[in-house]
């Protein structure tokens, strides 16, 4: 199936604790289709999603450069918890493997804006603090930095407690943009095209046009593939032994 291929089966090489594990299969597929040159992540924490981007960028280095920018103050927040400095130390240690394809901006998201030209970003992942006002501010601050037809990912569109307001903002942007897709598993991942999609590869345009049973099938496959990534993390983290024969 064109919406699921060998890229969807790539294993993330670094799997620290994260609420984002279940989205790596879809995002590896998306990256292979989109071929972004500039990826920005707002909200990095241990780096799970960020190192998925870096893994892709390093793999395709010979085909052309893709830079991944990690922006976080590494102080934590009300939703992610408040951090010790060792989280950042561990992140930086791992980032050493990806110096060719990544840069770290240890700052607030607002301060990070000055590092980027307008209309320079191909893929923006918004995963900072999750109150409605935060997500709205992050999107509105950063949209001038997006290229036409850039892809924006919003994590946690399906969390409805603890004051999370991504779902509310996602419902609003739905009305403004016509090319949107939402995965309901893994706390929800909103996928948005910032434009009419005319410059997107045809498969991505078809992806946004999916509906009905075909859309449900693609969602179900990525839910299952995502569960596997999370399950392998649980096995390692909690030392569960199982017979893999
Ligand atoms: C949900 S975590 C990111 C999770 C990560 N993407 C993953 O794969 O697990 C949110 C992060 O956003 C950071 N953060 C929240 N608000 C911020 C702000 N205004 N400026 C910089 N960092 C912020 C927090 O320090 C936290 O590390």
Structural notes for this entry:
By secondary structure, the chain is α/β, with parallel strands linked by helices. It has a single domain, classed as Vaccinia Virus protein VP39 (Rossmann fold), CATH 3.40.50.150. 38% of the residues lie in helices and 19% in strands. It is built from eight helices and nine strands. It has helices at 24-34, 48-59, 85-95, 109-112, 132-142, 166-176, 202-209, 212-237, and strands at residues 38-42, 67-72, 76-77, 81-82, 102-106, 121-126, 146-155, 180-183, 189-194. Helix 1 (24-34) runs parallel beside helix 2. The chain starts with 23 loop residues before the first helix and ends in an 8-residue tail after the last helix. S-adenosylmethionine (SAM) binds at residues 18, 20, 43-46, 48-49, 72-77, 80, 108-109, 127-129.
Task: Please give the structural blueprint.
Elements: H1 24-34, E1 38-42, H2 48-59, E2 67-72, E3 76-77, E4 81-82, H3 85-95, E5 102-106, H4 109-112, E6 121-126, H5 132-142, E7 146-155, H6 166-176, E8 180-183, E9 189-194, H7 202-209, H8 212-237
Parallel strand pairs: 1-2, 1-6, 2-5, 6-7
Antiparallel strand pairs: 3-4, 7-9, 8-9
Q: Please, what is the oligomeric state?
A: single chain
How would the global form be characterised? Answer: globular
Count of all domains:
1
- Order of adjacent strands in the largest pleated sheet: 5-2-1-6-7-9-8
Please name the CATH architecture: 3-Layer(aba) Sandwich
Provide mean pLDDT, rounded. Answer: 95
User: Which hetero ligands occur in this complex?
Assistant: S-adenosylmethionine
Instruction: Tell me how many strands there are.
Output: 9
């Amino acid at each position: 199936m064109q919406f699921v291929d060998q890229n969807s089966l790539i294993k993330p090489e670094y799997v620290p604790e994260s609420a984002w594990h279940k989205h790596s299969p879809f995002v590896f597929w998306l990256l292979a289709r989109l071929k972004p040159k500039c990826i920005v992540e707002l909200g990095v924490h241990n780096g799970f999603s960020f190192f998925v981007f870096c893994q892709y960028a390093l793999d395709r280095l010979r085909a052309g450069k893709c830079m991944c920018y990690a922006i976080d103050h590494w102080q934590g927040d009300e939703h992610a918890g408040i951090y010790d400095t060792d989280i950042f130390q561990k992140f930086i240690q791992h980032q050493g493997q990806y110096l060719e394809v990544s840069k770290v901006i240890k700052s607030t998201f607002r301060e990070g804006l000055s590092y980027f030209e307008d209309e320079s970003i191909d893929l923006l992942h918004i995963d900072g603090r999750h109150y409605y006002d935060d997500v709205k501010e992050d999107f509105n601050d950063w949209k001038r930095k997006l290229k036409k037809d850039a892809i924006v990912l919003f994590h946690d569109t399906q969390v409805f407690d603890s004051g999370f307001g991504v779902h509310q903002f996602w419902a609003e942007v739905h009305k403004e943009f016509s090319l949107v897709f939402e995965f309901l598993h893994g706390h929800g991942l909103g996928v948005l095209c910032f434009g009419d999609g005319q410059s997107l590869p045809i498969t991505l345009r078809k992806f946004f046009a999916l509906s009905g049973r075909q859309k449900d099938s693609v969602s179900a496959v990525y839910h299952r593939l995502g569960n596997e990534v999370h399950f392998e993390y649980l096995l390692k983290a909690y030392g569960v032994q199982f017979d893999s024969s």
